[in-house]
């Protein structure tokens, strides 16, 4: 009886050992298959600093075991063209999608040439060419200023002599890089999405068209540091207006002097500013029977 019990115990232990061996071998087989399955992955061929626009010279595509491929790793170098690293990537490190700024949201700073400045100008529907300018257009910037020679105070206010209004062309052939919050590279990404036949691209295109219909109250232009200083001051002391240039005369500069009302109308005396109603009409309103004016 005892020998039969010992036989059953031995058989059970042998079966358990067989099951455990099978589980172990299955796990090792899966692990080896994962190690053997190779995947393409893009790694940095050099150290990439944060806020760097990535190009293919910084990248290398290699194959690694699938087990060691990190989540959201990029497998195609072309998917990285023009994108921006928002964190440093060491040489040999896998490029992950979470390391990158979305192409449609790249900072405007990457579009400003070295030695130039981006400065914003407040505009209205009139001074901004009816809201029809777009990133990439070239404009002339005109300033209108109230001039006068201080001659003293009267009633606590400064009095001026020889007052006049004058308009000058401050800058010519200035490139607009953004309107409102939409800048040129973002617009290019939207246009590329608009060319997509269906799906997400079509949805982005529809959103882009809706955004383009919204009014804006400022434009951003690319100028030299000195011109940026001049534009900031001109906005404080006068009114700026944009004049849209044809694409056919980009780069052409005209020598235009200042224009004042005397030069405009070719008259020897100044033109007084237009009021809501002249003295004649005010007198007529107060006269008997003048209610119709």
Spell out the blueprint of helices and strands.
Elements: H1 2-36, E1 38-44, E2 52-53, E3 59-65, E4 84-85, E5 100-101, E6 116-122, E7 138-154, E8 157-179, E9 182-183, H2 184-194, H3 200-212, E10 218-224, H4 225-237, E11 239-244, H5 261-265, H6 279-286
Antiparallel strand pairs: 1-3, 2-4, 4-5, 6-10, 7-8, 7-11, 8-9, 8-10
For the secondary structure, the number of strands is 11
Task: Give the ordered list of helices and strands.
Answer: HEEEEEEEEEHHEHEHH
Count of alpha/pi helices:
6
- Return the average pLDDT rounded to an integer: 76
Structural class: alpha+beta
Q: Globular, elongated, flat, extended or rod-shaped: what is the shape?
A: rod-shaped
End-to-end separation: 131 Å
Helix content: 25-40%
CA-based gyration radius: 36 Å
Specify the biggest β-sheet: 6 strands, antiparallel
Instruction: Provide the low-confidence segments as ranges.
Output: 188-208, 279-285, 287-293
Give the DSSP E fraction (strand runs of 2 or more residues).
Answer: 25-35%
Task: Characterize the structure shown.
With 293 residues, the protein is α+β, with helices and mostly antiparallel strands. Among the domains are: 38-101, Type Iii Antifreeze Protein Isoform Hplc 12; 109-181 and 217-260, no CATH class. It is 29% helix and 28% strand. The protein has six helices and eleven strands. It has helices at 2-36, 184-194, 200-212, 225-237, 261-265, 279-286; strands at residues 38-44, 52-53, 59-65, 84-85, 100-101, 116-122, 138-154, 157-179, 182-183, 218-224, 239-244. The strands form three sheets. Strands 6, 7, 8, 9, 10 and 11 form a six-stranded antiparallel beta sheet that branches. It has a three-stranded antiparallel beta sheet with strand order 2-4-5, with no helix packed on it. β7 (138-154) and β8 form a beta hairpin. α2 (184-194) crosses α3. The longest helix has 35 residues, at 2-36. The radius of gyration is 36 Å and the shape is rod-shaped. The N and C termini lie far apart (131 Å). 14% of the residues are buried. Residues 188-208, 279-285 and 287-293 have low confidence and may be disordered.
